[in-house]
User: Fold these one by one.
Assistant:
Number 1:
Amino acid sequence: HSDYNDRFIISGILHEILKVYQENCSNLRRVNIHYCNLENGGDEALAMTIRSCTHLTRISLYRCNVADEQLLPIVEAVRGHTALERLDLASNRISATGCQAIASLLEDPNSNVLFLDLEQNRINFDGAVTLFNSLSSNSRLRNIQLRENPFDNREDSPRIMNALDRLLCN
């Protein structure tokens, strides 16, 4: 019971903090939110802040319980942000559907993301292939972290390597 109340209080505080940055974000370059549940509208508040703050170079949402549904408005808010170079989404609940949204961001010619961290999510083989395929039209991304996802096992390793080989050959 207290854990639920604590999360609700933290979520309310996050909303208030983000509201301040929505109104005055000209100097904001980084958003680092760790160990915070973005449910109950936190994703929308964050998306509104990101949409307003066009000079962001880094967004880090570590262990924020971000699922595909919460990721979609965030990715839409990031679209067109040419200053964004680093997107850290490690230790969340992103799966193949979220990978499709991220892939569309990576395929965007205005995207300048250099580093993408998706470690410890729920990305299966199909999600990983979706990400790899999006890189065929992206020459900017320099580092993608995908360790400790469900595809990261011996059974999928040959299929992942084949997908990477095709990408590298193209």
Number 2:
Amino acid sequence: WGERQGGTNAIGMALVRRQAVHIHATEHFLSNQHDWSCAGVPIWDPRSAGLLGVVDVSVPAQQSHPATLSLASLLAHTAHLELRERHRRELEQLRHLAWTHPAARGGEWSVVDRHGWIADAADFGTQRRVRLPDGIEPGAVVIPGLGERVAERLGDGWVLRAGGSHPAAPPELISPARPM
């Protein structure tokens, strides 16, 4: 249903515009879609802020209702809330796993998920999220806002222990996930 394959349609346009859209009857590019009314709303990943997909509500054009776009928006928002709750549970599991790790017994450390969200920390002045280097590997890494750290795998995340001599760089701001 991309714009190139299906012409103007709610799914393709929501993906291109990255916002909610409603395409009714002859607003569709292809004539075989003129009997439909469709609403498409993007779903955003609350962890990475990346576009995951689109909720589509399609009904026969003669049965269309002005609230179709509102329904699609509500469904996308519900999906976003579920994804956010799953992420909260993942961070909680990572936090519990962290307390079994030797690094959590002293010094400065942070436990982050693969997107840089902080599950737990014993660092002074840590943020809610840090920018992890692309392709992070175990060993010495420089984390903007924290400085040099020693990265160790922990489940699906990382323990970042204080280490090295590089001072902390100014923190990099990361945009939060797009609001619904």
Number 3:
Amino acid sequence: MRFDSAHKQLVVLARAQFGAFNRRQACNAGFTNSRLRRAVRNGELHQPLPNVFVMAVSGPSWKQSLMVATLADGVASHRAAAALHGLDGFPPGIVEVSLPREVHSQLPTAIRHRWSYSDEKDVVLVDGIRTTCVERTLAQLGSVVSPDRVEQGLDSALGKGASLHEIEETVRRLMRPGPTGVGVLKRILDDPDRNEELPDSWFERVLARSLVNEGLPRPILQHRLR
């Protein structure tokens, strides 16, 4: 690839996006389609999707895979979004994205969902990756994981400072028939056992419920010693 100002601009952009960029961004940097095709033929660029490219010198990574998907008009969602938000119980690794109904990009390495009922406030940038906000992420998780894992994510999000009011508002806004996962989160929020002090960890919540299930008094979480 000829090392000129367009190349320099594209390298800087790619470094900020885990080695990936799309055709529109390349065009804005001064790259023509013929130059992109030549770079792909020469092995300087990989082309995982028709309009998305990856610098050959950049090593593959989980975040790069998510970036490739979002550059194709997708958004990191569900378990991938939970991992990006750092929620307990959701380690990095899974590539899970939501795509608009009118987009038909092929992402063979990703778990794909259809993106509907979208609102701009549902999308945030995490490390430069378009990601569902933590409230919408929690609302979607119930469609792919167990209620216990949704609650673990909820506890983690609240512990990190997420607003319970915003989560409840998101549930009301997105609630509708169908396997969207919102109903799972609503049942958790409506559970009277939630009217207690937020535990320090998921293990603490599981232990407290186990004690109650065995007929012991409900423990007081985070009891202050004076």
